[in-house]
Amino acid sequence: MRIALNTQILVGALSGVALGLLFARLGPDAGGVKQGIFVCSLIGNLFTDLLKMVLVPLVFTSIAVGVANLRQHRQLHRVWVSTLGFFVLSMALAIALALLASNWFEPGKGLSLDLFQQADRNIAAKHMSFAEFIAGFLHGLFVNPFAALAQGNVLAIVMFALLLGIALVMGGERYRNILQLLQEGLELMLRMVGWVMRLAPFGILALLAQLLATQNLAVLSSLAAFVGVVLGTTLLHGFVVLPLLLFLLTKMSPLRFFRASREALITAFATSSSSATLPVTLRCAEQHLHVKPSIAGFVIPLGATANMDGTALYEAAAALFVANLANIELDLAQQMIVFFTTMLAAIGAPGIPSAGMVTMVMVLQSVGLPAEAVAILLPIDRLLDTFRTMVNVEGDMVVSLLVQRVLQDKA
Ligand code: ASP
């Protein structure tokens, strides 16, 4: 009997966690553990490499074809507006949740400042002002497409493909052949994604085993209150807020949604990268959630770099945590600044592991908090990244369903 891939992936993930915990327990010196971790890293890397291999042509063809298929301009406009609207809405909810919970539980209050001062001395984080961030972000949007494709610069590829798609729409029949070429290219890429997915159960097992075996789980408990607030609100957002939003607007049951999106959620959890997960997300959206390719092909790749609920939530909670550690009281106006810079920081963060840590510097600095404080969070970042990436990817799939719903209503 053939077991469904969905189930195989779940079994792979659970076995990976168990194996990782076993490795951690035995310690690196026990016989075979080093070799085991090495084999896991080989298989895990192979899996993510394969995903990244198809990523660039997939994003390019999917966005260009997605936009071109929206044909009439009125519809294109609606997709744009509703996509951006839902991105902002879902991230705003996530940040509000983080700010509320952080104000309520006040993680970091009264924690020994040694930790903070030590971090301060040891690591000098790169300073990045708000203006610099915006300038860098805008500058990165439009890049020579061949360079962007070669470097795997997802945001720049998205922008070029968007423009190309619009040009194809405006040109109509004239560019029929190019559109067909792109369409066939997209189909080919999705076929290859299907092959890569056969490796997914093993890849996920290996990635999770390696992560748990090589991270120091004990540091999580030293920052227990903060970890509790972040994980609690991330899970609340992922399991209550987003499914509720989806249910209210589309009537899709949460159970159905999670069943259909499981492959992508587990892959996001294991790879901690929205970009690497993108091929799987697109597959889930189109094949399991039945989002039209013209909508999914546009919303999902854009969302993988711009829509990050989990990251937004994490950065807002972290800013308030650092303020508490440094004994700085942030008033309402400052928290509003945190709100807006966090959203920009999440939009600007690329979908790769720990990207949120880098753009967080900007959030801290926007309200005068010491950027060096990221050093305290670094040791726990990879572990928290699993959950926030999962919610980032979940948000993309939810928004694609919401956009589809809006278009149906207006059709
Ligand atoms: N790892 C996250 C992602 O790829 C970004 C982050 O670090 O928050 O979605």
UniProtKB/TrEMBL annotation:
**Keyword Transport on entry:** yes
Primary location class: membrane
Protein topology in the membrane: Multi-pass membrane protein
Q: Give UniProt keywords alphabetically.
A: Membrane, Transmembrane, Transmembrane helix, Transport
Q: Which InterPro entries match?
A: DAACS, Na-dicarboxylate_symporter, Na:dicarbo_symporter_sf
What SUPFAM superfamilies is this protein classified in? Proton glutamate symport protein
| Pfam families attached to this UniProt entry | SDF (PF00375)
**Sequence intervals crossing the membrane:** 50-68, 80-105, 146-171, 192-213, 225-249, 336-352
User: Does the UniProt entry include the keyword Membrane?
Assistant: yes
Localization recorded for this chain is:
Membrane
Q: What is this protein called?
A: Dicarboxylate/amino acid:cation symporter
- Organism, as annotated: Methylomonas rapida
